[in-house]
Specification:
The protein is mainly α and 203 residues long. It has ten helices and no strands. It has one domain (7-198): Rhomboid-like (Rhomboid-like fold, Up-down Bundle). Helix 7 (91-116) crosses helix 8.
């Protein structure tokens, strides 16, 4: 058993993405059978954050989902895109940018809720996943490492289609998506430039 554990290439195993998917699924299963208590405690809304000062909702809302289709779509995207990105940039940078995107997207979402006086709450990992879209775009633009089948045009089209589907659908937190995308793009670009600087690249 010990030899099998030692033989695992932990560096190239996308255990952060897998762990995130597992946690999301477990939380979803619990929330489906707890009478709505988790959703009530973690949904991102004006009352919870601004009135009750429950700032942890900026994190908890990322692990809550509104139905089986909602979590299925998000977890498929998180697994396939997340595992690819995690192998490219490393476990810790990936995890940090994922959470920064989710939190930043939540903040922009809440800002728009206040501006529009929208009391409806938000749940889901979508903002963080859109942050991975932004991170992936930064990688193809600035990272300068070949990634088969990943080109700027394909990433742009994927992001445009995802945003379009969101704006054409009901009950979608588009502000959270846009906010997460921009945060992922920003911190992704910062990460790529730091990596290039450390490698001694110019431009």
């Amino acid at each position: 058993m010990k030899e099998k554990l030692q033989s695992i290439d932990w560096k190239n195993l996308s255990y952060v993405s897998i762990t995130l998917v597992v946690i999301n699924v477990i939380v979803f299963l619990v929330s489906e059978n707890d009478g709505g208590r988790l959703l009530e405690a973690g949904t991102l809304n004006i009352e919870g954050v601004l009135k009750n000062k429950e700032y942890a909702r900026f994190v908890w809302y990322m692990f809550l989902h509104g139905g089986i289709e909602h979590i299925f779509n998000n977890m498929v995207m998180l697994y396939f895109m997340g595992t690819m990105i995690e192998k490219e940039i490393g476990h810790l940078p990936y995890l940090v940018i994922y959470f920064l995107s989710g939190i930043g997207g939540g903040m922009f979402s809440l800002y728009m809720k206040v501006r529009l006086m929208n009391p409806v709450g938000s749940v889901g990992a979508s903002a963080a996943i859109f942050g991975l879209d932004g991170l992936l775009l930064s990688m193809v633009l600035f990272y300068r490492r070949p990634m088969p089948q990943v080109t700027p045009v394909r990433v742009f089209l994927m992001i445009a289609l995802s945003l379009y589907n969101g704006f054409m659908s009901d009950n979608v937190d588009n502000a959270g998506h846009v906010g997460g995308l921009l945060v992922g793009l920003l911190f992704g670009a910062l990460f790529c430039h730091i990596k290039r600087f450390r490698r001694g690249e110019n431009g």
